[in-house]
């Protein structure tokens, strides 16, 4: 070991069966090092029992999301030099989701919200019908395209203070998906979808604080999508009784 080698002071959350605490590690600092590199080094070199989740390592799957110094981030795309504070890192599981073990969270509540928001495509035609042409410049298609690149990483869900205060809130990702489907002319589930997102825990709970947009790694803006849902559900109220 070189005497000039630099080390990071890393605090990693350890939890099993509801009992959690931070554990300290000294991790060699490297050029172009990511947070995921740090976690992998600890698991490979210091403690093989450390649990965490990752897959692609190139910002495609979103499965490596964790809290880094209090902010939700993709750890494979977050470089140490951009987020380390006085050579210190605090790495924890995503907020607002149950911890399975250490840095791995249970994603079921996140995806349950998608089901509750009717954020599932309902085809209006069968595979035997001719494919409906879609004009890429159509305003509805443009709105759908702006919201469609979500990869289900749950960073926005962890960033959302409304979710933290109200566990029944559907959350930015589910509502963003509902908005993209609401603007899909091929979808046949619009009426039920609007009812689903306008009820208790729905889009009108959003405080428009923009934390979801601030932290989204794909630079989506769920707040804009949720605002669209607020307008659409308000308009639909007048038609439900007809």
Keywords:
single chain; 242 residues; alpha+beta; Ubiquitin-like (UB roll); Fumarate Reductase Iron-sulfur Protein, Chain B, domain 2; 2 domains; five-stranded mixed β-sheet; two-stranded antiparallel ribbon; 10 helices; 7 strands; 36% helix
**What is the count of helical runs?**
10
CATH topology of the largest domain: Fumarate Reductase Iron-sulfur Protein, Chain B, domain 2
Question: What is the tally of beta strands?
Answer: 7
CATH hierarchy, class of the largest domain: Mainly Alpha
Strand arrangement across the biggest beta sheet: 2-1-5-3-4
> Which percent band covers the strand fraction?
15-25%
The secondary structure category is alpha+beta
For the termini, the CA-CA separation is 77 Å
Q: Using the CA coordinates, give the radius of gyration.
A: 21 Å
Please, what is the average pLDDT? 93
Query: Which assembly state applies to the chains in this document?
Result: single chain
What's the main sheet like? 5 strands, mixed
Tell me the series of helices and strands, N- to C-terminal.
EEHEEHEEEHHHHHHHH
Structure in words:
- The longest helix is centred in the last third of the chain and has 19 residues, at 222-240.
- The mean pLDDT is 93.
- With 242 residues, the chain is of the alpha+beta class.
- It has helices at 35-45, 80-83, 108-116, 139-147, 155-159, 161-165, 172-182, 190-198, 211-215, 222-240; strands at residues 7-16, 19-28, 65-68, 71-74, 88-92, 99-101, 104-105.
- A hairpin with a 2-residue loop joins strand 1 (7-16) and strand 2.
- It contains 10 helices and 7 strands.
- The protein has a 5-stranded mixed β-sheet. It has a two-stranded antiparallel ribbon with strand order 6-7.
- The N and C termini lie far apart (77 Å).
- Helix 4 runs antiparallel to helix 7 (172-182).
- It folds into 2 domains: 7-105, Ubiquitin-like (UB roll), CATH 3.10.20.30; 108-240, Alpha-helical ferredoxin (Fumarate Reductase Iron-sulfur Protein, Chain B, domain 2, Orthogonal Bundle), CATH 1.10.1060.10.
């Amino acid at each position: 070991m070189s005497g000039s080698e630099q080390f990071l002071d890393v605090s990693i959350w350890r939890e099993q069966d509801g009992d959690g605490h931070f554990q300290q590690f000294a991790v060699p600092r490297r050029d172009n090092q990511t947070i995921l590199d740090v976690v992998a080094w600890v698991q490979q070199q210091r403690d093989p029992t450390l649990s965490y989740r990752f897959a692609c390592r190139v910002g495609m799957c979103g499965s490596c999301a964790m809290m880094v110094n209090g902010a939700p981030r993709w750890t494979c795309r977050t470089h140490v030099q951009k987020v380390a504070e006085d050579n210190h890192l605090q790495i924890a599981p995503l907020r607002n989701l149950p911890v399975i073990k250490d840095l791995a969270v249970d994603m079921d509540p996140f995806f349950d919200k998608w089901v509750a928001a009717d954020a599932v495509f309902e085809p209006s035609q069968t595979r035997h019908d001719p494919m409906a042409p879609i004009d890429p410049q159509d305003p509805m298609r443009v709105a759908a395209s702006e919201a469609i690149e979500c990869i289900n990483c749950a960073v926005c869900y962890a960033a959302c203070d409304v979710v933290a205060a109200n566990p029944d809130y559907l959350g930015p990702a589910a509502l963003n998906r509902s908005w993209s489907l609401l603007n899909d002319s091929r979808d046949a589930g619009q009426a039920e979808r609007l009812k689903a997102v306008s009820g208790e825990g729905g889009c009108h709970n959003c405080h428009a604080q923009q934390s979801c947009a601030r932290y989204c790694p794909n630079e989506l803006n769920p707040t804009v999508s949720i605002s669209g849902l607020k307008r659409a559900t308000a308009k639909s109220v007048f038609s439900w009784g007809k």
